[in-house]
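ingest -> validate -> predict -> emit
validate: passed (alphabet ok, no gaps, 120 aa)
predict: started
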Amino acid sequence: MHTKKWRPEPTKKNGAKPKSLTIRKKLKEFKMITVIGKHEVKDAKTWKVGFDADETNRAKAGVKTNGVYSSIENPNMITIIMDFPSKEVLDGMMSNPDMQKTMAEAGVIGKPEFHVFTKI
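emit:
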């Protein structure tokens, strides 16, 4: 009688099971966009507290923050690099009155400037 040799179930380092092949294929087909946003703020430290507090909302929308930077010449000039699921998600977030209120409360001055890229 031949019995199958027991092998441990593959898991990630954090103990989670790997995504199914179907999900991995769909994720591969799904292209995120990379957005570089730039805006001036009243005070970078105060703004960063407000930005960090809104992480949950960005995560719910599928947005990943890759980096937050301040200019050497003007520490209140902020540049953010993020990945968005689509341009529509970016446009929707930026036109949302709640987002505009959050940005104003965090001290954003003027209209943010965005550059949108896709990976080639």
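The chain is about 35% helix and 30% strand.
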